[in-house]
Amino acid sequence: MNVLVTGATGFIGRHTVTRLLQKGHRVTAVARDATRAMEMPWFDRVHFKACDIHRPDTDPDLFGIQDAVMHLAWPGLPDYKSLVHMEETLPADYRFLKKMICSGIKNLVVTGTCFEYGMQNGMLDENMPTFPATPYGLAKDSLRKFLQMLRTRHPFAMKWARLFYTYGEGQNPGSLLAQLNSALNRGDTVFNMSGGEQLRDYLPVERMADILVELVENPGLDGIVNICSGQPVSVRRLVEDHIAHRDSRMKLNAGYYPYPDYEPMAFWGDDTRLRQWLTGCEPVKSA
């Protein structure tokens, strides 16, 4: 399969490209920075295009013939409250994806976000209404709705992969575990954090990449799916387990930072649909 991957050098993209190649797919990797791409271990094994997909003059012919598109790119993170997500990224993303679809793409995987659910607590499933509470969540939710409306004119299969939390090599240095690793590497004896009582849903990035590749390999799947573990874990437990794994005696200064005001205290994904899809059960379509 020929697969176009946007955001190929990003945190999730770099692992997804690796997994696609391992499974024998041909990859057109798209990113803005060619220098960064050349640092990737897979650079010599892909067809790389240095391109800003948000430019209005981006031509789908630039990427050659593709069987599927995995749209993983989204700039401006982790500033979830920036209006840029709504005012610039959303219309540019839709314009790019519409061009790809009108050029003949029928198999599309797009990464959404658990932030589409907004401030709802508890286990979140794909049939729940969305109430995004941040510009980022609103922009992603709106993009999904735009694409669903586009399908009334240009039919295509779309897997909307609603990502929960992930961690691993290449993550943003400002993220929790990246900061913790930096503190451990420096030999810090204390780590400042929030109260840590939040319940979240985490997946290692390698597992998330595996799932995304399985989605693109199954063109018949269609709809929204939570990419999650289905298991709530407290932030404090995550941090403590990571410290123990590193065989460190570091102490936690819990409560140093306030809890984020854009996330509920306890939420995790219902992974029922994901398990159905990955085990080859009858595809479950969602609105």
UniProtKB/TrEMBL annotation:
Q: Which organism is it from?
A: Syntrophotalea carbinolica (strain DSM 2380 / NBRC 103641 / GraBd1) (Pelobacter carbinolicus)
Task: State the name under which the record lists this protein.
Answer: NAD-dependent nucleoside diphosphate-sugar epimerase/dehydratase
Family, per entry:
Belongs to the NAD(P)-dependent epimerase/dehydratase family.
Domain spans labelled NAD-dependent epimerase/dehydratase: 3-227
